[in-house]
């Protein structure tokens, strides 16, 4: 996974994007705060041969509920994040697809509520 994280960071930066780590996956997206950290070129140096993932991974059963996905959307907006690269298996991709499908309605809801 670290090789993929490194590739995403370096390609994103080479395209002029600001890239962020969301530590602990959907859990970090819901919790926000210190779990969302801007990545830098040096952030991913020397991680290729480490096992696991340097940004961590965690199950987030709350992400199955819309109210927590709405909180995750709020955290992304507050950090200026407009796109996601989700690295994982079937559960991660299912969660990402649900989030993508609901994104327009979540934006409308946040605007209506003044957030």
Automatic annotation (TrEMBL):
Main location as per UniProt: cytoplasm
Pathway: Carbohydrate degradation; glycolysis; D-glyceraldehyde 3-phosphate and glycerone phosphate from D-glucose: step 3/4
Protein name per the record: 6-phosphofructokinase
Keyword annotations of the record: ATP-binding, Cytoplasm, Glycolysis, Kinase, Magnesium, Metal-binding, Nucleotide-binding, Transferase
Compartment list: Cytoplasm
EC number: 2.7.1.11
InterPro entries reported in the protein's UniProt record: ATP_PFK, Phosphofructokinase_dom, PKF_sf
Residues annotated as domain Phosphofructokinase: 1-103
Cofactor(s) recorded in Swiss-Prot or TrEMBL: Mg(2+)
Catalytic reaction list: beta-D-fructose 6-phosphate + ATP = beta-D-fructose 1,6-bisphosphate + ADP + H(+)
